[in-house]
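Batch job 17 of 40 flagged for manual review because the log was empty.
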Amino acid sequence: MWNFFIRSAIRWCTPVHCAGLLLAAALLASAGESNAMRVGIQAGVGNYVDILGVGIGSEDWNQWSAGENWALSVYGVAGASYWQGNHHGQNADLVDLSAAPVLRLERNSSGKVAPYIEASIGLHLLSHTRINETRQFSTAFQFGEFLGVGMTFGEERRYDVALRVEHVSNGGIKNPNDGLTFGAVVFQYRFGNR
C-alpha cells in the first residue's frame, strides 16, 4: 500500500503539492526551539533512478569569516528520499534515510541575493540493497557525499535553490558496490534570523 502511495505521489506531484509538503515540513521545523531551521525538497535523476526527498536542516553550528566578502559555515541536515527505478521495465524502489554535516562557503551580502558552494559527507540507510534488478548496493548502510552550487535570495535571504551532484555507495565495505550517482535540484526555506 505504501508503495502505491509513494509512486502515486511522485507521479502526481505538482508544484502546489510540493509546496504543501514543504509547508508541512516547515510547521514541524518551526515547532522546534531553534531560530534558524531549514526545510527543503529535492528532486533528482541518475542511473535510471528518479529521486524525490524532503529534509530538515539545523541552524548554523558555527560560522567563520573567510575573507572580506565570504563566510564559511557548517550545519546539519537529515532527510528521507524515495528512489524509484525505471530501467527497461524493471521498476524497483527503495527509501533512503540520511544524516550529514554540510560545509558552506557563502558570499556575504547586504543585498537579497548571495551565491554559495557547499559540500557534505554523511551516512545513509537504505530500505533495500537493490534497485532496477541490475544495481546492487550489498549493504543497507551507505556513505554519501554531494557537491553543490546555489544561491540564497528573498527577504533576509530565506529562500535557497541549488544544483547538486550526489553519490551514494558503501565505500567498498562489501562487493558488489554499484553505488548511485545523480544530479538534483534542491529548494530550501530558512526560518528565523540569519
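Reviewer: the log was empty due to a logging misconfiguration, but the result itself is present. Confidence is low (pLDDT under 50) at residues 1-12, 14-34. Unflagging and moving on to job 18.
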